[in-house]
Amino acid sequence: MDMDYMLDDSAWRRLLEGVAVRFDELTIIRGFQYFKQGRVEELSLRDDGVHVDARVKDNRMYDVAVDLDDLAASECVCSANRACTHMAATLMCYAELCGRSIQALANARSALKSAAASGKPDGGRGGARAGTERAAAEAPSRAVNEGEGANRGAAPAAPRLVRPTLTEEELTDLPVARWHERFQARRGQMNLNIRTAQEASELLADLQAMRPILPWALEQLFTLHALLFVLERMVKPAQTDWRQSGLFMGYHTQLALDGLRGQARILLEDKLALADDSSAYWDRLMETADFLRERMLTEDKTLGCFAALYASLWLGWLGPGSAGSAALYEEEQRQLQTAEAELGSSLSRLPWTLAQCLLLLYLARDAEARAMLARDGIKLMLKPEHLAPLLGVLKRAEQWARLRDWLAETGPLLVGFRGDDLAPYGDYWAVVVAQLPEAEPAMWRTLQEMLPFSRTIYEDALAAHGRWDRWIDLQMCMGQDPLSFRVTALKPVEKEAPELLLPFYHQAVERYVLQKNRDGYKAAAKLLKRLAKLYARLKKSERWELFIVAFANRNSRLRALQEELRKGGLLS
C-alpha cells in the first residue's frame, strides 16, 4: 500500500455512507467496470488530503475532482450533472491505493439498505456485528420487562422473531449448503420467488446484513453465494413452470436476472484473496465449484445462467492465474465424467461439453477438446459466444499458434450464423494474423470453407488485407449492387485498384437495363456517370467513347433509357 494514501476507519465509513447516498446502483456497477478496465489515469491526492484528482478514459478523457469530505461538491467535466461513472471509478481506484475493499465500496448501497431495514444508524460493514452484540446485550432486560408486564396483568407480548445470522467462525466451518439453509431461514418460506430487480436488491441487502466484518476472501465467497441464492429464487420457478423458459421469462424478471448475473461475473473477475489449498476457506471454494457444477448440469438450456457463472469461476478464481492447478483440473474433469453417468438423459449436454473443453485446454490437451467439439458441436448448436471463453484464454496467454489451430477447426462448426454473430470470431483471426503472419493461408482457407455464413467477416478480411480482386469477385458472384455501397466504402478500391471496378459497374448497368423500368434506367445512368469518371481516371477516354456509343445504339429502342442518358449528360 502507498503510504501517501491512508484512510482511517472513520473516514472509510463516511466514504461508504456517502457513496451509498450519492450514487445509484447502475453508476456504481459501471464505475467498477471502468476501474477494472484500467480507465482511471493520473490519479493524485492534493496536499489538503481531501481532494482527489484523476483523468478517466471514456469516449474521451474526462477530468474528475472528488471531494472526499463532501461528495456532493465533486466535479466531472462530463455531461451527467450528477454523481457519475467517472467519479465512481476514481473512488474505487483511490480505495485500492488506500488498501480498502473495492467490493465493499461496490456494495455500499446494499449495506445502507440493510442497515436502514434493521434500524442500525451506520451503513458500514461493522454494523452487522455491532447490531448483533447490542441485541444480545439487551435480550435479558427485555425478557425481564416483558415478564413484569405479564405480572401486572398486561397481555403477554408476542415472541420476537429471531432472524438467523452467520458469524465468521460459522462461515468458516459450515459447508455452503448450510449457508443457503440459513439464507432461507432468514427469508422465511414466503416471498421467495423473485420477479423484479427491486425485490432482488432488497433480498441481497437483507442477506448482507447477516454477516459481520469478514476477511476479504471469505467476504468474496459470502457475497457470491448471496447472489447465487437470489438467482435460484428466479431460476427455479422458471424451470418448474412449463409456461416459462429463458426465451419467455417476464421482461422485468429477465432484466433482474441479467443484472444479478452481471454482478456475480464482475465479482468472479476480481482477484481471489486465496491462492491454494492451504487456506482455511479452501473447502468452501471447492463446495462453490460443486454447487455451480450441479446446477449447470441440470439447468434448462434456454436459461444458461449457472453455466455462465461456472465458466466465470474456472476462468477467474480457479483459472491458471489464480488458485487453479493441473491436479484440480483433472479432478474436476473426473467429476464431470461421473456426472454424465449419473444424470443420463437429464444431463445438460452443451455446458457439460464446454466445461470439459475448458479443462482440457488448461491441461494442454487441445486435440481431445477439439475432437469433442467436432463430434458434438453441430448437434449441440454451438454458437460463437460459446467458443469465446476458450479462445479468450489463448488470446490472453498470447499462444497464437494454438489459437490459430482452434480457429481453423472450430470455424466450420459455426453453421447458420452470419454478420454480427461471427464478428468476434473474425476479430480473433485478425489478431492471430497480425501476430503470426504465416497463419494467413489458414485464415483464408477456413473463411472460404465457412461461406456463405462467413461472408461478412470474409469481406472485411479481404478489405483489410487489400485483396481487392477477390473482394470484387465475391461481390459479383453474390450479385451485389454497387449503389448499395457507401461511396466511402469503394474509395479504397478506386485508389488502389480502380480497374477492378470496371466489370463490377458494367455488370450492374446491364442488370438495371434488364429491369425495363424508369427506376432501373435512372440507376443505370447513375452508374454510367461513375464509369465515365473511372475511365477518365484510367486515361482510357477513347475506350469509354466507343462503349457509350455502342451501348446507346444497342438500346436505341428504349426511349426512357435514352432520356435518362441525355439528362445525365452521357449523350449529346
- List unreliable stretches of 5+ residues: 120-161, 241-247
- In angstroms, what separates the terminal alpha carbons? 82 Å
Strand content: under 5%
The geometry reads as elongated
What can be said about the biggest beta sheet?
A: 4 strands, antiparallel
Protein name: SWIM-type domain-containing protein
Region (Disordered): 115-166
Keywords: Metal-binding, Zinc, Zinc-finger
Biased composition (Low complexity): 146-160
Describe this structure in words.
The chain has 572 residues and is mainly alpha-helical. Among the domains are: 9-106, no CATH class; 491-567, no CATH class. The protein has helices at 9-22, 25-36, 85-97, 102-106, 108-118, 127-151, 168-173, 176-187, 197-208, 216-240, 251-269, 282-297, 305-315, 326-343, 349-362, 366-376, 384-396, 400-410, 423-435, 440-449, 455-464, 468-477, 487-496, 501-513, 518-537, 541-554, 559-567, and strands at 40-45, 51-57, 61-67, 75-76. The model is unreliable at 120-161 and 241-247 (pLDDT under 50).
Write the layout of secondary structure elements.
Blueprint: H1 9-22, H2 25-36, E1 40-45, E2 51-57, E3 61-67, E4 75-76, H3 85-97, H4 102-106, H5 108-118, H6 127-151, H7 168-173, H8 176-187, H9 197-208, H10 216-240, H11 251-269, H12 282-297, H13 305-315, H14 326-343, H15 349-362, H16 366-376, H17 384-396, H18 400-410, H19 423-435, H20 440-449, H21 455-464, H22 468-477, H23 487-496, H24 501-513, H25 518-537, H26 541-554, H27 559-567
